[in-house]
Every structure is written in C-alpha cells, then in structure tokens.
C-alpha cells in the first residue's frame, strides 16, 4: 500500500511538472483515484511545501531561485539547435511545450512525441507531428513499452531534446518512472544528437531512474554554473550556459 502511494505521489508531481496548473478534478481522473484520496495526497505535498493550491487546482512550487524566464532561456537556447528539415524528438516538459513557437521559422520539421499533450500542442501550432503509439499511462498521457519502442526503432532522429528529473546519486540524467527508461534508451540509440535541457535547480534534486550517462550527451543546455558544479558534467561533450 505504501509503495502504491509513493508511486501515486511521484505521478502527481510529474503531471504538475509537465502541465503546470491542473484542475483537481482532472488530476483525480488522470490518477484514477477518488477526490478524497487526491485531497489527502495534495494535503501531504502542500505540507511538505512542494505544491500550491488555488481555486480547485494545484501547481508545483518553485523551490529555488530559478525564475520562469531563466527556465525559458535555457529551453529557447536548446531549440536553436534545431535546423530546417530536422526530425526532432521533443520531451513533454511544460517549458519545452510553451517554447515550441520558437521553431515556427524552421522549414520542413517533423516533431516526434510520445505524449498526447505534446502532440496536441504541436498540432495547435501547425507542426507536422509524428506520435509514437504504444501502451499509455493515464497520468500524463505518455506512451511506453514494446510497441512504442518498435516504432522508435524505425525512425532516424536528427536531434532529441530531453529533460531530466535530477542528477543527484545517479551520475547521469534520470526520469521519475522505470518504464520511461526503455523508450528513452531507444530514442538515444536512434538519434544523431542528444541535447539535454536542465535548469540549475535540478542539480540537487535526486535522480530516480537513469536513462543516459553524462558521456552520452552531445550538448547540455543549462543556467550558469559554478566551476565546481561544472565539474560534475565532465563527461558531457559540450555545455552551454545561459
């Protein structure tokens, strides 16, 4: 029972990280829980100072000095690596989705996603979108598993832009859920260039399940780092600080 709750809390935080402000009734549907169970989970996260609640909705708190403009600068800089005609895999983080309009001047792009919200954002902006099918998690609307991986294996990706939940304790870049590792490993194998987007607040956040080592990253785009912080990424081929 405790493990189930821990996984549910992890899923809840992941949804809020990806989608920003979410209505509580939508959260209950995504997590397939009763309003009472969701209220208990939100009470716990609020008591820990991790979320904010407002008018029937919830959002993650900003726990560090990184501001939304700083996060956006990092994302926009990463998107500058995309060239005309590229096939691009885009992670489903809310900041990346918000910044997608900065690709509007590119020609003949194909954006590959494994998230329904990301696919809808791409379509709304008029991009050619390739959605990776497969087994789907209700929370967040992500696909994963054998069929998703088989589809990825038939795509040559020019550039993949991925985020990370944290790096502490994993010596690499990580995700919240174990089932996300497989599809990311397939994406990395199929991409010519791996770009990692990481706000500096992730430096001290724990990594959960590592999907890539530092040495596998072609480019890390992040906020300004101290010399000591930069040493932690000695295996990354190139680091751009904004």
Notes on the structure:
The protein is α/β, with parallel strands linked by helices and 242 residues long. It is 37% helix and 21% strand. It has nine helices and 14 strands. The chain has helices at 2-19, 24-31, 35-47, 68-79, 94-98, 116-124, 146-152, 179-190, 227-231; strands at residues 22-23, 51-54, 57-60, 87-90, 110-113, 128-131, 135-136, 143-144, 159-162, 172-175, 194-198, 209-213, 219-222, 239-241. A seven-stranded parallel β-sheet has the order 6-5-4-9-11-13-14, with helices on one face. Strands 1-3-2 form a three-stranded antiparallel β-sheet. A two-stranded antiparallel ribbon has the order 7-8. The longest helix is centred in the first third of the chain and has 18 residues, at 2-19. The radius of gyration is 17 Å and the shape is globular. The mean pLDDT is 88.
What structural category characterises the helix and strand content? alpha/beta
Counted by DSSP, the helix tally is 9
**What is the topology, as strand order, of the major beta sheet?**
6-5-4-9-11-13-14
Mean pLDDT: 88
Number of strands: 14
State the end-to-end CA separation: 43 Å
| Model regions low in confidence, pLDDT < 50 over at least 5 residues | none
Q: How many whole angstroms does the radius of gyration measure?
A: 17 Å
| Helix content, binned percent | 25-40%
Largest sheet composition:
7 strands, parallel
Order of helices and strands: HEHHEEHEHEHEEEHEEHEEEHE
Name the overall outline.
Answer: globular
Beta content comes to: 15-25%
């Amino acid at each position: 029972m405790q493990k189930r709750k821990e996984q549910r809390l992890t899923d809840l935080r992941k949804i809020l990280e990806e989608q920003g402000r979410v209505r509580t009734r939508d959260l209950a549907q995504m997590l397939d829980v009763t309003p009472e169970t969701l209220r208990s989970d939100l009470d716990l996260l609020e008591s820990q100072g991790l979320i904010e609640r407002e008018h029937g909705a919830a959002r993650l708190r900003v726990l560090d000095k990184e501001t939304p403009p700083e996060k956006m600068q990092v994302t926009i800089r990463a998107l500058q690596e995309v060239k005309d005609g590229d096939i691009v895999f885009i992670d489903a983080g809310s900041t990346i989705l918000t910044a997608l309009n900065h690709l509007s001047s590119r020609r003949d792009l194909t954006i590959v996603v494994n998230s329904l919200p990301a696919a809808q954002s791409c379509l709304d902006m008029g991009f050619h979108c390739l959605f990776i099918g497969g087994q789907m998690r209700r929370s967040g609307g992500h696909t994963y598993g054998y069929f998703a991986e088989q589809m990825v294996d038939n795509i040559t990706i020019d550039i993949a832009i991925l985020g990370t939940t944290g790096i502490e304790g994993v010596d690499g870049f990580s995700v919240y859920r174990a089932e996300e590792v497989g599809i990311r490993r397939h994406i990395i194998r199929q991409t010519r260039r791996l770009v990692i987007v990481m706000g500096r607040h992730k430096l001290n956040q724990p990594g959960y399940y590592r999907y890539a080592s530092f040495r596998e990253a072609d480019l890390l785009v992040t906020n300004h780092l101290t010399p000591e912080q930069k040493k932690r990424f000695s295996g990354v081929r190139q680091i751009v600080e904004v």
